[in-house]
Amino acid sequence: MSTNPISNDLFLRACRREAVERTPVWFMRQAGRYLPEYRAVREKVDFLTLCKTPELAARVTVQPVEIIGVDAAIVFSDILVLPEAMGMTLFVHEGKGGPHFAEPVRSRSAIDRLVLPDPAAKLRFVTDALRTSKRELQNRVPLIGFSGAPWTLAAYMVEGRGSKDFRHIKGLIYDSPGDAHVLLEKLSQAVGDYLLAQIDAGADAIQIFDTWGGVLGKSEFEEFSLRHITSVVSRVRGRHVPIIVFCKDCSQSLEPIASCGADVVSLDWKSDIGEARAAVGHRVALQGNLDPVVLFGSKESVERGVRRVLEKFGHGNGHIFNLGHGILPDTPVANVRTFVEAVKTLSVVYHREPAGVMRHA
């Protein structure tokens, strides 16, 4: 791993709530189908081949930095490569129901058969993609690694695919909570090992995605999701890289999430970032949270959307601008550029000292 300083470290400083000249900006799924350059790569390979070919994964990881000008890169991969490495058979058919597992985990014996993979062997394509991306970035911006949260991974593994009602995974926690915790504890260990391997491969920060945390009630979320996210965070904190936690539709548990040990809490677009800052901004940095659909509007409406989020957060540090979920595949590239440039331009005023205020050492 390179020891040279990163030229643009705004993202890392914001994660640590240090002073920045402007608000840094990146966005979830920034390496993806909205970019013609990404589609050109995808025309030659299927999705999983792209994930598992480090040189190609690195190429699309770096594209948004060079084309859009974001302040951080996130390694191109998929959260479901980890369950695959644990022994499940993963299929991805884009446009035909999405990813699915051939044999969902529906019994204690199936849970027991899951292996704890050695990331250096079973997931080397991810760590190699990180190393290659790091080399190609040439210390221009930080590189983010990631994993799905234990609960979100378990939901896919037990349901077999995405779901509208999540009746199988919910049935597991209601009927066999002990078995559910065995699965989630095994996943916590696997996720922790995986993230540590990513850090060793050069990740400057990591993000934990809990896409399906919001399908649970508050008490169930805190028992079956947040408890295990906290376990992962406690294993990773010793490496001293920023940890971001994104729990979609979980604003009812904002304060417990902010107490899990992460450095940054990422908010979905339904949350009010000003209210979140008032509640927990003294403990963690906040990331977010423009509605991705705003990027389909006019240049003026995109700029208004950016200005609204900046105004709600207000003056001071500890804000990373992002979308409230992943960018949608057919988002106009020109609007994405407008979004990023608006954050860079409009946010400067929020990082100036108010008149008559002196900063003390």
Give the strand tally: 9
Low-confidence stretches: 355-361
Overall geometry comes to globular
Q: Strand portion, in percent?
A: 5-15%
Query: What's the number of helices?
Result: 16
What's the end-to-end separation, in Å? Answer: 33 Å
The class by helix and strand makeup works out as alpha/beta
CATH topology: TIM Barrel
- Number of structurally distinct domains: 1
Compressed to H and E, one letter per element, the order equals: HHHHEHEEHHHEHHHEHEHEHEHEH
* Overall pLDDT: 95
Level-1 CATH class name: Alpha Beta
Write up this protein.
A 7-stranded parallel β-sheet has the order 1-4-5-6-7-8-9. A two-stranded antiparallel ribbon has the order 2-3. It has 361 residues and is of the alpha/beta class. It is globular and about 60 Å long. It contains 16 helices and 9 strands. The model is unreliable at 355-361 (pLDDT under 50). 46% of the residues lie in helices and 10% in strands. Strand 5, helix 12 and strand 6 (243-247) form a beta-alpha-beta unit. It has one domain: TIM Barrel (Alpha-Beta Barrel), CATH 3.20.20.
What labels would you give this structure?
single chain, disordered C terminus, alpha/beta, two-stranded antiparallel sheet, 361 residues, TIM Barrel, seven-stranded parallel sheet, globular
